[in-house]
Amino acid sequence: MDMFAVLEKLAVPRPNHSEAVEKTAAYLQGLLSSWDIPFTVQEFVLRPYQQLLVGYACFFLSLLVLLFVIKRKPLPILISAVAIWVLLFLEFEYFIPLVSPLITKTGQNIIVNFPAADAVRELVFAAHYDSKTDFFDHIERAKVYRFIPIAGVLGLLMSLWVLLRKKFASLGRPALSIATVCLAGALSVYWGLVALGFGGYIFLSGQSCGAVDNGGAVVTLLALAKDIREGRVKTGKSTVTIVFFAGEEVGPQGSRHFVKKYFGEDAAKRTVPASLVNLELVGQNGNMLYWTKNGIFLSFLATDAGLRARLDAAWKGVSGKTMDAGGSITDDALHFLRAGIPAITVGHTGIPGLGEGGFHDVTDCMDRVNPDNLYLMRRTLKKYIEGY
Ligand SMILES: [Zn+2]
């Protein structure tokens, strides 16, 4: 299989709200069928505009804060300011949809299963096939998002301040009124910037091809599936499951559905224990990389040390090198870790080059791909499976 040629076909913008994501799913299924590899499709309710809807809802709530500051109503200010926090935490940290179900469509996870006769373990490999374009690049975005906690707290303090101004005549001076309204206005402008960060991509014409995030990973797992099917990987007593997720860039939603439905409630207590190797940013320049933590806002879970050691041994066998340690990431492995399933995400450092930056942007197209690294990851995963 010519991995680079398949990646060239895959590397087109395929955001979750577009028809291109269905076309990509169909392309993947067509390839698997043409190689005589059985697969199942797991459908789920996909909320393709999650960030956009949450972003604009936060902006709207900040406008309510401004309105009630002008009207000098402390309790409605408090309710609107608290609603911003509730929305952000429930939607993003706890995956409880509030505004994102306003627009839904059907998402598809594609599952390939190679069962072992006397399986003693299940090795799951995963990669998401959707892509994303963001309004700000990662540096601009970080500059904007870093003030979210401060803006959230200021919104809450606004209600207290307006309450104090109503109680004490000395705080009712016109200059303070103007300053208070200006601050509330500045907060609304700020939440407007956050909304652009979350949902401003609808105004952009240039789109990320998602070549390295995460086309390279998808191609690597396609090649792995073909290698297993054609007997080039000795899977032994390991059942190997390869999953292509949708909805990663808006949640991650596909993997949340998969973990719930595929493993059920007692994921960590199965008689055939499962583990996950998730692939992100595979096929750019640089050394193999693993991320040490996975999380969103509050809790960051450590990725699995046992899997890391096995992957490190496999990578050493292929290249003579040890993996680099990355920081934290938010991706599909999160739901496995939260369910008590050992998991880790690996990819490539991107150095020399843009490293972990320059994704969700036009800079993530084919000229960023390092074909040698695609091939090396394929060999490393084979060695990893055979190492059990
Ligand atoms: Zn990704």
Question: How would you describe this protein?
Answer:
This protein has helices at residues 3-10, 20-34, 50-71, 74-93, 138-145, 148-167, 174-199, 211-229, 254-263, 305-319, 333-338, 371-386; strands at 40-46, 105-114, 121-128, 238-245, 274-279, 288-295, 300-302, 324-329, 343-348. The protein is of the alpha/beta class. It has two domains: 3-48 and 105-133 and 206-386, Aminopeptidase, CATH 3.40.630.10; 53-96 and 139-202, no CATH class. Strands 1, 2, 3, 4, 5, 6, 7, 8 and 9 form a nine-stranded mixed β-sheet that branches. The chain is elongated, with a radius of gyration of 23 Å. The two termini are 25 Å apart. The mean pLDDT is 95. Bound molecules: zinc ion (ZN). Residues 128, 213-214, 248, 280 line the site of zinc ion (ZN).
List the helices and strands and how they pair.
Blueprint: H1 3-10, H2 20-34, E1 40-46, H3 50-71, H4 74-93, E2 105-114, E3 121-128, H5 138-145, H6 148-167, H7 174-199, H8 211-229, E4 238-245, H9 254-263, E5 274-279, E6 288-295, E7 300-302, H10 305-319, E8 324-329, H11 333-338, E9 343-348, H12 371-386
Parallel strand pairs: 3-4, 3-5, 5-9, 6-8
Antiparallel strand pairs: 1-2, 2-4, 6-7, 6-9
Helix pairs in contact: 1-8, 3-4, 3-7, 4-6, 6-7, 8-12, 10-12
The structure holds zinc ion.
Mean pLDDT: 95
The secondary-structure class comes to: alpha/beta
The residue ranges in which pLDDT falls below 50 over 5 or more consecutive positions are: none
Largest sheet: 9 strands, mixed
Per DSSP, the total helix count is 12
Please, how many domains?
2
What percent of the residues sit in helical stretches (DSSP H or I)?
40-55%
Q: Name the bound molecules.
A: zinc ion
Q: State the oligomer.
A: single chain
Element-by-element helix/strand order: HHEHHEEHHHHEHEEEHEHEH
Would you tell me which CATH topology of the largest domain applies? Aminopeptidase
User: How many DSSP-defined strands?
Assistant: 9
